[in-house]
Automatic annotation (TrEMBL):
GO function terms (MF aspect): FAD binding; oxidoreductase activity
Domain FAD-binding PCMH-type residues, every copy: 81-252
Family assignment from sequence similarity: Belongs to the oxygen-dependent FAD-linked oxidoreductase family.
PANTHER family xref list: BINDING OXIDOREDUCTASE, PUTATIVE (AFU_ORTHOLOGUE AFUA_1G17690)-RELATED, FAD-BINDING PCMH-TYPE DOMAIN-CONTAINING PROTEIN
Protein name in the entry: FAD-binding domain-containing protein
SUPFAM superfamilies associated with the record: FAD-binding/transporter-associated domain-like
């Protein structure tokens, strides 16, 4: 087997050859429309930063170029969120992560930070400059005495659940496999199968260990660097890079109920719509949860219903709303939490051009759900669409009562909803971005026309498209505080060398 050291030397050699033979002193061309790995010239600043990083990092960390062995295809859920970096740094220690950020700051090199790669926005965790991959921060540990779980920022939720399986404990995290803990937490998240019981992951976060923009190490919690702790729960990558999260552990039954069900055809989709509206209206207090996805794949109308209940059968008046529907696949069953999450085939939709948008609602009416089903069916037949999908997620009224103050305000009784479209042709990118944005606005207007007061509903940054206005995501007082904190914590605007919603 090739050792990491050999790969490191190889990477350095290739990097220096790149510097010698392919430097272009102008900025690199936009590569978003080029096939992956077809980039020509690269930027001098990025190359010099990569060369410095490859010499300075310790043996346990890696600096690799895309022309060596880094698996680009596997990096992001949507290929439109990927770019070919000049080099990718995989720091293995907090000190190497700090040194990496210091080098990037000194060179003023463009960079990005990637954890699970599930953002729908290009540039948020990809770059043609220096990519910092957190994948080597992959430790997961449970302390039963303190009832706390600590995990590295590079792990995905399914690996956390697999590790906790059989311990009798669980954490509030993502609902399908593959989602990274890094973006999920820092983007204000997140919504979990455990949210009706324990709130959002942000409400269960105890502390974080991170590298500040100036390259120093810091710990933040309610009692230590409290402003920073507030800011990283919804402030994205604007305040530094978190490498470790410590969260509350909750007792978890060995067996739970749920999984996924799929129905196809108009008649069945209508039944799912009625059941979803009924569940949303009636399931105000129970721990049962669903996500109904109304979508059209290759023009076929379809409904997918994901469900969870922390016991072997859900109480009457909750999931039984979905009885009597003719399912093409019925995967609701008694199983472990980890197998429930892994059973949901979300990765089947991975690897396509795509994008997210969001809207918020306080109730899910039948007319709105019917409009959604009709719209995704129509759009599903146009412009190289492979999937047009809207996820509706009703939560119990217990949720706002558990909300703690955080940069992303989730204290209202609004529910974040996700629009996800996927397509094949790069020529259709502009068309689909417009459809996503327009549909988000239409559904918001529809909810308001139904009488829903959305004045305290803020769009969830983790579902929001890159062009979303800051005022749509943050209350004015949170935005003002974020701006002040950012100026204090990052006066050199180091994190401005990467991309996220900017304040
Ligand atoms: C299939 C799918 C399922 C999803 N399910 C859920 C769900 O159940 N609940 C929910 O709330 N959301 C869900 N989401 C949304 C998800 O929370 C966001 O996409 C989130 O950003 C993913 O995090 P990531 O680490 O995978 O993404 P990445 O693309 O790696 O990162 C996203 C952003 O966070 C930044 N970032 C990542 N790690 C760090 C860090 N350690 N320090 C500082 N900045 C960091 C990156 O720089 C980037 O800007 C889902 C998304 C998809 C595509």
């Amino acid at each position: 087997m090739t050792s990491p050291i050999t790969l490191r030397v190889l990477a350095q050699l290739i990097l220096f050859c790149s510097i010698a033979f392919s430097v272009n002193t102008t900025a690199s061309p936009a590569i978003s429309s080029l096939p992956l790995q077809s980039r020509g010239a690269v930027n001098t600043t990025s190359l010099h930063a990569c060369a410095a990083l490859s010499l300075s990092s310790s043996a346990s960390s890696l600096v690799v170029t895309p022309f060596t062995f880094f698996d680009l295809a596997d990096q992001h859920y949507m290929i439109t969120s990927s770019q070919v970096s000049t080099c990718t740094v995989q720091p293995a220690t907090a000190q190497d992560l700090a040194a990496t950020l210091k080098t990037i700051a000194a060179k003023r090199a463009k960079f990005a930070v990637v954890a699970g790669g599930h953002t729908g926005n290009q540039g948020f965790s990809s770059t043609d400059g220096v990519l910092i991959s957190l994948e080597k921060f992959n430790e997961i540990s449970l302390d039963k005495n303190t009832q706390q779980v600590t995990y590295g920022a590079g792990v995905t939720w399914d690996t956390v659940y697999n590790t906790l399986e059989g311990t009798g404990y669980n954490v509030v995290g993502g609902r399908v496999a593959g989602v990274g803990v890094g973006g999920y937490h820092t983007g204000g998240g997140g919504y979990s199968w455990l949210s009706n019981q324990f709130g959002l992951a942000a409400d269960n976060l105890i502390s974080v260990d991170m590298v500040l923009p100036n390259g120093t190490l810091a710990t933040a919690s309610e009692s230590n660097n409290a402003d920073l702790f507030w800011a990283i729960r919804g402030g994205g990558n604007r305040f530094g890079i978190v490498y470790s999260f410590t969260v509350k552990a909750h007792p978890q039954p060995a067996q739970v109920y749920g999984g996924y069900r799929i129905a196809i055809g108009d008649a069945n989709v209508q039944k799912v719509i009625s059941a979803t509206a009924k569940f949303a209206a009636n399931n105000t207090a129970s721990a049962a949860q669903i996500i109904t996805t109304l979508n059209s794949e290759l023009g076929i109308p379809r409904a997918i219903v994901l469900a969870y209940y922390p016991g072997t059968s859900a109480p009457a008046g909750s999931l039984d709303a979905f009885d009597g529907i003719s399912w093409l696949i019925d995967g609701w069953k008694v199983q472990t939490f980890s197998s429930l999450v892994s059973s949901i085939p979300s990765n089947l939709q991975k690897g396509q051009r795509g994008g997210f948008e969001s809207f918020a609602v306080k109730t899910l009416s039948v007319p709105m759900l019917q409009y959604i089903a009709k719209t995704v069916a129509t759009l599903g037949k146009s412009h190289s669409a492979t999937l047009t999908s809207i996820e509706v997620e009703p939560f119990a009224s217990t949720l706002p009562g558990m909300a703690k103050s955080a940069a992303w305000d989730h204290s209202s009784n609004a529910w974040p909803q996700a629009i996800y479209f996927a397509w094949t042709s790069s020529a259709d990118d502009v068309y689909w971005r417009k459809q996503l944005v327009d549909l988000g606005k239409t559904l918001t207007a529809m909810a308001q026309a139904e009488g829903q007061d959305l004045s305290d509903a803020y769009l969830y940054p983790n579902y929001a498209g890159a062009g979303t206005a800051l005022s749509a995501m943050y209350p004015p007082e949170n935005l003002a505080r974020l701006k002040t904190l950012r100026a204090e914590i990052d006066p050199q605007n180091v994190m401005g060398l990467t991309t996220w919603f900017d304040f």
